[in-house]
């Protein structure tokens, strides 16, 4: 299964952008994005998906043509992305994609657990029937895709990326804090970047984790959900490191 996943996602890595646009920015796509906003979104997606590899130089002239914006706009966008640690500014030498490292992965894992557990607690307190319905729907879609992946069908890998996000987002969607959601989203994306670099699916353990998280969330068991989430994230980080793709 892991080998099939690796081959499929290596071939299709550039197309992850389609799914990220679809599930992350569906509301924004209903409005008229400026060229700069569109370029920011596309560059960010390319950084997370690995289409712009860690440690690579970002050549402004090539990027200008690829993202259809001026060099000055590109500089503004890349400067903004330095605040998320996705890009490094090198002074007069331009910009570089942030490298991937074991240390950052483990820091992101810890930060994700801290933020997501807090958001889950708020959601468990405030969540209503609509919140439960979102969670049920998200888990149903995720589990359907995971059954296909476990059955040896890697063609739904990109859907899994989408529905994994939707499931975790649904759990925290009643936290009533836009700032917390935005911060968690940024950390989730940076953590996802490492999973996409590792190019492998954990298989049944991650499916079991999601099922248990769903059950605990429906029962509003905060202690159990946070313990399960901690295990889920830490095992995910360990799996990425085991892949040998992160220095």
TrEMBL record:
The lineage of its organism: Bacteria, Pseudomonadati, Pseudomonadota, Alphaproteobacteria, Hyphomicrobiales. This is GntR family transcriptional regulator. Coiled coil: none annotated. It holds the Pfam family GntR. InterPro entries: GntR_C, TF_FadR/GntR_C, Tscrpt_reg_HTH_GntR, WH-like_DNA-bd_sf, WH_DNA-bd_sf. It comes from the Bacteria. It comes from Sinorhizobium medicae. One of its GO terms (molecular function) is DNA-binding transcription factor activity. Residues 33-100 form the HTH gntR-type domain.
């Amino acid at each position: 299964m892991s080998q099939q996943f690796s081959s499929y996602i290596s071939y299709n890595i550039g197309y992850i952008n389609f799914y990220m646009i679809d599930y992350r920015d569906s509301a924004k796509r209903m409005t008229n994005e400026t060229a700069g906003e569109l370029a920011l979104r596309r560059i960010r997606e390319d950084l997370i998906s690995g289409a712009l590899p860690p440690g690579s130089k970002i050549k402004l002239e090539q990027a200008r043509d690829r993202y259809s914006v001026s060099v000055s706009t590109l500089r503004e966008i890349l400067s903004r992305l330095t605040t998320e640690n996705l890009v490094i500014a090198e002074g007069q030498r331009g910009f570089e994609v942030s490298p991937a490292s074991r240390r950052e992965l483990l820091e992101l894992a810890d930060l994700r657990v801290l933020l997501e557990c807090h958001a889950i607690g708020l959601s468990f307190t405030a969540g209503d029937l609509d919140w439960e319905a979102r969670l049920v729907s998200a888990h149903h879609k995720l589990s359907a895709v995971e059954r296909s992946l476990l059955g040896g069908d890697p063609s739904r890998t990109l859907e899994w990326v989408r529905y994994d996000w939707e499931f975790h987002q649904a759990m925290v969607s009643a936290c009533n804090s836009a700032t917390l959601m935005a911060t968690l989203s940024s950390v989730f994306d940076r953590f996802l970047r490492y999973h996409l670099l590792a190019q492998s699916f954990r298989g049944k353990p991650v499916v079991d984790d999601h099922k248990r998280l769903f059950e605990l969330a429906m029962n509003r068991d905060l202690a159990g959900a946070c313990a399960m989430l901690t295990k889920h994230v830490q095992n995910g980080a360990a799996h990425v490191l085991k892949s040998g793709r992160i220095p």
